[in-house]
Amino acid sequence: MNQKSQMLSFKQCALLLALPTLLLAGSARYASPQNANSAGLISIRLEQKHGDETKTVPQNTVFHTGDVLRFRLTSRIAGYLYVVDKGTSGETTTLFPVSNGTSSQNRIEPDQTMVVPAMSDGWFEVSGPSGFDTIYLLVSSSPILIPQASVPETKETPQNAIPPNLLPRCNDEVFKARGECIDASAGVAPLPPGAPVPRELIPFAKSAARDIILTDDGDGVTVKAAPSAKLPLIYTFRLAHLQ
Fold first, then answer.
1. DSSP states of the chain as a string?
2. For 9, 22, 105, 113, which has the most beta carbons within 10 A of its beta carbon?
3. Predicted structure pTM score
């Protein structure tokens, strides 16, 4: 995914994914378990830009190279947010927070709205091989340290939570009815137990809850923790695109 002119690419903003060097200059700290708010954790909307027009689009839309997008997130709780992208090229990028500094950079409060990526005007341009970018969203009750994301070694196989050679496919019925290319496997999804994560997230993922409940609110999706789940919590957003 690359941005041009004032739009920064995922890669540029990591060297931008955080939504996850990042927080805290000291040793990594892991959040003590905390019950998540029953009203939800984060509402996620995906927006697309056409010229001067911005519109909310279905999260499971299949995009194409050159499409211009951004995430609009609304927090329902107080805590700390990290967004990290594993692209179809195998490269890991931190989207949020986007630069080194103090924990206040990614502190979230109830009813706070933010755009991701969080630099410039927040837009990015879709690029890279066809497939699914896996975007990891981490919500913690206290700051943690995630090692800086990095370009993988040439021998490393991309560690997306879905097979790297799996290509998005349009739902024919939706396409015939609305003219939209929709893949039901795209969008917000739980991170299955044992699913691989980027190496930067392995220590955190081992202790984080993965059980989420999704509520479709029309324009987007609200993510809730399962009743038994406590913070910290990790889940994913699969961004589908074709060249």
1. -B--TTSPPHHHHH--------B-SSS---PPPEEPPTT-SEEEEEEEEETTEEEEE-TTBEEETT-EEEEEEEESSSEEEEEEEE-TTS-EEEEES-SSB-GGGGEE-TT-EEEES-STTS-EE--SSSEEEEEEEEEESS----PPP-PPPTTPPP--SS-TTPPP---HHHHHHHS--B-TT-EEEE--TT----GGGHHHHHHSB--EEEEE-SSSEEEEE-TT-EESEEEEEEEEEE-
2. 22
3. 0.77
